[in-house]
Amino acid sequence: MTCDGQKNVEPVSAAPLTLSAPRDYDGTLILQSKLHPPAARRGAVARRALLRRLQEETEDATVKLVLVVAPAGWGKTSLLGEWWSSRRNTPSAWLSIDPGDNDPVCFWAHLIAAMSGASGYAGSDAMRSLVVSDVKIADVLVPHVINDLARTSARMTIIIDNYHLITNPAIHECLEFFVEHLPPAVRLVLITRSEPALPLARLRARGEMTEIRADDLRFSEEETAALLNQTLDLGLLPEYVRILEQRTEGWAAGLHLAGLSLRGQDDADRQVHAFAGDNRQIVDYLTTEVLDAQPAHIRCFLTRTSVLDRMCGGLCDAVTGASGSQRILEEMERSGLFIVPLDASRSWYRYHVLFAEMLRRELESSDPGLAPLLHQRASEWHRQHGSAAEAVGHAIMASDLSSATAMIAPWRGRFPQGFTETVESWLASLSPDRATEDSRLRLIKAWLTGHLGRLDDVEPWVGGAEAAMVGGAFVEGPSSIESAACILRAASSLTLGDLADAESASRRAVELEANGPPRWRTVALASFGASLYWLGEDRESARVLREVVSPPQPADNLAALWAHGCLSAMALSRGDVGSCQGHLDEAASLAGQHGLCHCREAATAFLALAGLRECRGEYREAEEAAVTGLDIAQRGQARLEAATALLCLARIKMHAGFTSEAEASLNSARDVILRCAAPGILAELATTTEQLVGQQQSQRPRSSGERRSHRPDGLTSREVEVFELLAAGKTNNEIAKDLVVSVHTVERHLQNAYRKIDARNRGQAAAYIARAARLAWSAASTMSWHRNGHATW
């Protein structure tokens, strides 16, 4: 059936729908309770942002339909009920649908009654048509409803709740006609758990529809706190509020049920951390409201795919042993079955966390012992489709530890960056014997301990790998167990500042990788070249590192970045500024293209950049680069680079006249160098820096560790700097952050400066510095140091 035509014009219908209404219909079929939203829960959280959005969108002249669609318990009805109640000056009609409204006469009778209760709408023509025998809904009733609406100029919003209960195609088709021909002052709001059978794509393309979905309805952390601590009066700590908000993904019903389960509990900490999809109230709610409403084949699909953290059609086919999964996933999304799309193409999905946990509990109850088989199927599918990490995870969940070992052991290069904690958890899942008998697993453990900051534990695992009973080959890894052990030992020793061991291990790795894969030969060469650089063997180091960067395309981007950093530092030390800048440009290009700016291997390039700028007298820029290099080195626990950065900062501070800060940086550098077993060139560099600082101290008079001022008002350059930031409106905390000093130091500078210029407050000081600037007193002596911890190459 098609509903076509214009208001006040007889519509055209290919096959008009005819229904018989009671001849004596007088409104007694109307249930008045359905014409008002449910009473608001006492203390309900106000959703102010969403209420403003609804107000704006219903006032948009182009919008005809507002679709509010989300699964059960997301607060759809509560939100619209609050909005309906707030619109006392704008006529609004409310209709709550129940299953009996699938009768078109009943549906339209209640809708007309709802609109009749709104100011300015009589609905007389439409109501009279209902009592006519064999009324043609499409041709007569709906046009009458539209015409009655058009007779009033007042704005009206019609809200229909629970529209997902409407399954009669005749109602959908006539509502489509109704929406298409709504008068300009009328808006229709549909509240539903699933997308209605209406031409949504067409309305969306025309800009005639706006949507509020589950993502929009999620409770924020602030709203979660209001619900739990104000409405439910739980008094939870912010940490617990945050955990529950993340655990429920902002699901309103889940939060409310969580709050109810915590009432009267003395151990809130344990209860909050234990809250999950097996919480009795969560299970009861989701089972009753969601799972029980599904047909048997969907229930089976839901429980069997619950073992998946993410899913696509092909993976679900493999796990369930049935076809057509992609269609089911798309239908589930339209139906709002707690499923979340993970990409724009709607290929990958996941379940809401609590829903997935409830489904897993249901699977264990209905099909005990089936989960391992499902995990095994998922592991095999991922192995065939190239997702090694997920293949391993499912193999472990299936208790198929031999397959898991076979996938983990080949080499860390198969797993993405940032996967250290996950791989460590895999190893912990294996038996102690299995985890230690394979040399490859021991090497992975060595790599993990290094990446997790436990550097002193690397060598025992490397040594154990060399002595392990089981060897095996690598996939995309070094050419041998010995070579891999040497590469890991060299990296660890370099990080710890043991250059003797680093040079020996990396030299051996280069020999072993002479005919090995290009990537790992490059890694070995970079480590060897860096060791030689820190030992002061510049000529041999440059020869080795040029091998790393000479190919048109680096075999390993991190190795090339590291090599360019060392080459730039060596070029600067021999006074070749052009080569230094060229290598820095190459390093910047690699770091920018591949997102490597914060990797430990970038620190050397930042420090060479700092040295270059220091030589040019660009002290502010030099400090920026040195601070960035120091931050990278400290995060990577790289002692050689950290000490170099501190020595660089000591020289820069001294050039700027900040003696006390220079001495502090120098002392910190000494402490780091003392922890290095064989620091190489750092010992000489530290001595040179100490001599420079000593010379500057003897040549420049100091007062309170600062350079004396030649200003007529006696202000030091740092006091002027503090005043300038104060005049810019910054607080003491902000000034301290900008200058990388303590708030106490800022306060001391201000007190000294106030005394010198006879100022009593910040306003007088700001006025003074502005007046001084106009007189150009500070033009020659003021230096602005803006420290943001990031160097632009």
SSE layout and pairing:
Layout lengths: L17 E2 L28 H11 L6 E5 L6 H11 L5 E5 L7 H13 L7 H7 L4 E2 H14 L5 E6 L7 H12 L5 E7 L7 H7 L2 E4 L1 H4 L3 H11 L6 H11 L3 H11 L5 H7 L5 H10 L6 H10 L7 H8 L4 H11 L3 E3 L7 E3 L1 H14 L4 H14 L3 H10 L3 H8 L11 H10 L2 H6 L1 H13 L6 H10 L13 H16 L2 H14 L5 H18 L2 H12 L7 H17 L3 H18 L8 H13 L3 H17 L3 H18 L2 H16 L7 H18 L2 E2 L2 E2 L9 H11 L4 H8 L3 H15 L4 H13 L19
Parallel strand pairs: 2-6, 2-7, 3-5, 5-6
Antiparallel strand pairs: 1-4, 8-9, 10-11
Helix pairs in contact: 1-2, 3-5, 4-5, 5-6, 9-10, 15-16, 15-18, 18-19, 19-20, 21-23, 23-24, 23-25, 24-25, 25-26, 25-27, 26-27, 27-28, 27-29, 28-29, 29-30, 29-31, 30-31, 31-32, 31-33, 32-33, 33-34, 33-35, 34-35, 36-38, 36-39, 37-38
Describe this structure in words.
The protein has 793 residues and is mainly alpha-helical. Among the domains are: 18-217, 3-Layer(aba) Sandwich (Rossmann fold); 221-275, no CATH class; 409-477, no CATH class; 624-708; 714-774, Winged helix-like DNA-binding domain superfamily/Winged helix DNA-binding domain (Arc Repressor Mutant, subunit A, Orthogonal Bundle). Helix content is 59%, strand content 5%. It has 39 helices and eleven strands. Strands 3-5-6-2-7 form a five-stranded parallel sheet, with helices on both faces. Helix 4 (124-130) runs antiparallel to helix 5 (137-150). The radius of gyration is 36 Å and the shape is globular. It starts with 17 loop residues before the first strand and ends in a 19-residue tail after the last helix.
